[in-house]
Amino acid sequence: MTPRPASSGTHCPEGVSVFGGTDVRRACGIGLPQGIAKREGSQEMIRVKELTGGVTQLIMARQVAGRGLYRVAAYLVDGVLVDTGMAHTAREAAEALEKRQIRTIVNTHAHEDHFGGNHRLQEQRGLPVLAHALALPVLADPRRLELHAYQRFLFGRPAPSRADAIGETVATLRGALHVLPTPGHSRDHVALLDRSRGWLFCGDAYIGGRERVLREDYDVWGMIDTYERLSRLELERLCTGSGAIVDHPSERLAAKVSYLKERGEQVRELHRQGLDPRAIARRLFPGDRLMRWVTGGHFSALNLVRALLTSPGPPD
Ligand SMILES: [Zn+2]
Questions:
Q1: DSSP codes of every residue in 78-97
Q2: Residue 4 belongs to a domain
Q3: Does 5 have pLDDT greater than 70?
Q4: How far is CA 65 from each of CA 34, 45, 189, rounded to the nearest angstrom?
Q5: Overall number of domains in the chain
Q6: What is the rounded average pLDDT of the residues 136-147?
Q7: How far is the CA of 218 from the centre of ligand 1 (A)?
Q8: Per the domain annotation, does 316 fall within a domain?
Q9: C-alpha of residue 273 to centroid of ligand 1, in Å
Q10: What is the 185 CA–ligand 1 centroid distance (Å)?
């Protein structure tokens, strides 16, 4: 991993990846993520870090042969637990949170690496879970997720949990978090805005690095729209689902919008010149072979090209 310069405002390495830097930025955790240590007696790794202002961050990673793989983050904010990590680290997460006061769990979206700890926490503590209405059927029956081999290996399949549809705010121990729909990465994605701190707990709505590959079900125009809206919030801090902390993120969000729109124009121009999507992918986003191989084609440059060739608009 290559930590970004301190001036970048990113406290955790991100966007560094043998896979070309998009959603698999957490695969940069191949090799031990800095600061993550194996808890005594546990099979998986978890790091608990106190951020400023009383927010707790949990970084979770599956451990194989003594090395942490893909890291995911959860945050405890004034009694609200934002995401619960992967099934493989559910036990460790529950242990780490044992003495913490939690009143509600919120899942930013129903991807398997964000709600894997729900079941255990709910069983042990009877905690309520809130998520976007579209996420509820998946949380109730995670078999609805078609998991590729790499997902089963890295994260495991979560056990079911009972959740209710999230409203416009979520009460905390000292106020409220405001719920922002942030579709694109998934249709059921929400982020939580803490107005008192100026912090946004954004799950996977922000992913570091430049998109060079895309998962086949992502809505790239939704992502762009979300980046644009978030860039206008003038946030103090983004707390991401990878564990990357991005201070004063507006400029970086706006840069992602420009990058993707520019790439969209290039893709369409090459298409007008008669290049097919595969040839465009090879020209503009070379080097996705390892990513395609690891994910069984779930992520690819071709997906990104195809998405950029579609018209902006609401997802189906
Ligand atoms: Zn996700």
A1: TTEEE----GGGHHHHHHHT
A2: no
A3: no
A4: 16, 12, 33
A5: 1
A6: 97
A7: 10
A8: no
A9: 35
A10: 6
Look at residue 314 in the predicted model and tell me its pLDDT.
52
Q: Identify whether 2 is part of a domain.
A: no
pLDDT at 247: 97
Between the CA of 82 and the centroid of ligand 1 the distance, in Å, is 13
Q: What are phi and psi of 120, to 5 degrees?
A: -65, -45
Per-residue pLDDT at 88: 93
SS3 177: strand
Residue 45 CA, ligand 1 centroid: distance in Å: 20
Please tell me the distance between residue 94's alpha carbon and the centre of ligand 1 in angstroms.
Answer: 21
Residue 6 in domain: no
For the chain, the farthest-separated pair of C-alpha atoms sits apart, in whole angstroms, at: 62
Ligand 1: centre distance to CA 3 (Å): 22
Question: What was the pLDDT predicted at 68?
Answer: 78
pLDDT value for 55: 97
Q: The domain that contains 80 carries what CATH number?
A: 3.60.15.10
Domain containing 159 equals 12-309
At 43, the pLDDT band (50, 70, 90 cuts) reads low
Q: How far is CA 149 from CA 8, 294, 295, in A?
A: 35, 9, 8
pLDDT digits over 144-180, tens only? 999 999 999 999 999 999 999 999 999 999 999 999 9
CA 204–ligand 1 middle distance (angstroms): 5
Ligand 1 centroid, distance to 272 Cα (angstroms): 33
